[in-house]
């Protein structure tokens, strides 16, 4: 390694680091310069691509210390949620790929096993790292590899999730198995972290005498080091060495600041630029105009409803802003509950609120409801409780990749007795269907909405028995019934035009309420040669499966075609790209229909003459 002066003067330190061993050879007095370079790099790249800027600015020194003390990948470093692993990626040879961050075929915004041997956990769902660590330390013990360290980096927010405590319960009971739990305590999830755990960490953070010697971690059997200034790389390095040498279960409590070193993030009192779109790096302000999102329309309508219906309460799992509850929380703070990153608890707490005479609205990303399925099924639906689930980010979300796509909610909810699910196609339907869902007092309801700009009104040309007919073929030929689910209506309408140019008579019907299947939809389908469902959900048990079952039950013999997402994980990319790749854009829909009817696509003029 070149001398200090030579190193720091010749080229950016960051460019001299091909892998963690180069970092380990760096003299400690150059670490502050390296940290500055990393922050500048993160600000430049993440402002250009969007991503998790605040969380990664907060873990620069911590990540440097981790890779200097531990020998990844021989030692395992597991990041909880993984949104804060950009620095880890920089230090493990991926600096050159950051211009492609979160874009199709580009660098993932989370750890990726395909990208690097240093990456272990790809799942972006919080509160899992300690359970992985529990399994890893057990494997080390069984393999006689106790000298290979296991380190789990878990945020204060992730520590409010139940799984984290299930794991701590196990890890603490076998404290002779060496595991290093690094609590990255910045006091926030998006907003300030809530609950008794957060309060205990605050006590520790402030170095309250007794708390440091005996606390909730030591009571569970862990050693405890902290609180440590998480922005002093040398101090963190020193305490990590001590933790490692302890060779038992130990918690290292590191205090960091989300958004550190970038004024627009540090001044963002709401969320410290936790997850951002493309920004102007000079100001930290979004580039481009913010169109009204589905989330924004939901939040507006919920506030109106809450103002006239005192029984409405709302619950969020540490995401009041991203799920649209901010306005209601400001106006009716006593009726909005942030339970921490605790979706299972959120759902059963909602059941309790419903038993108490309220109508809870649980606002959650569709993908995060997966982990609360049993609570929905057995704590809400079994008791036929009136809880409304507003599933944001339903369908392909885009840049957050496989564990963020909300592509299983229709499959899960189709199994729940008494569950009614709406999928609004536009902002007008969203307002109406939300109102209708909350008005239902005899069981659970759900309204699913995608990420992005809310579609303007898509008017119906007719309504029949709860169905919105969006387009009827002028000729009246009932060849194909297209059944788009929610926001896929525009693609279906464009596909209808393509198919009519091929001489087919096409009806487009929006079921509005997707589950249970409206018998009128099955009847309408039976009058067509073929019906086609088009859904932004897995084909395994989704709306198409439910429709096929409903048609079987009515004895319909119409041909069927179900278009949706394969039983596979979908990579990151833009929502539009991913929908097109799944064949859920107008060309894909029309092509699939022509293929199913054994009709080669012909030039429109020829097709019309053929009739
Ligand atoms: C089960 C689950 N619920 C919600 C989220 C959304 N989410 C992503 S990061 C985050 C906050 C994480 O806070 P913390 O663990 O303290 O990490 P920090 O961002 O502060 O580093 C949340 C709620 C998630 N990833 N997983
Ligand atoms: C890591 C995590 O789960 C969230 O921060 C998520 O990335 C936010 O997604 P949106 O940007 O779609 O709100
Ligand atoms: Mg945090």
From TrEMBL:
EC number from the UniProt entry: 2.2.1.7
Residues that bind Mg(2+): 156, 186
Record domain Transketolase-like pyrimidine-binding: where: 292-457
Positions bound to thiamine diphosphate: 83, 124-126, 157-158, 186, 262, 343
Keyword terms of this UniProt record: Isoprene biosynthesis, Magnesium, Metal-binding, Thiamine biosynthesis, Thiamine pyrophosphate, Transferase
Class of enzymatic activity (EC top level): transferase
NCBIfam families cross-referenced by the UniProt entry: PRK05444.2-2
Quaternary structure and interacting proteins, as annotated: Homodimer.
Protein name: 1-deoxy-D-xylulose-5-phosphate synthase
The organism of origin for this protein: Streptomyces coacervatus
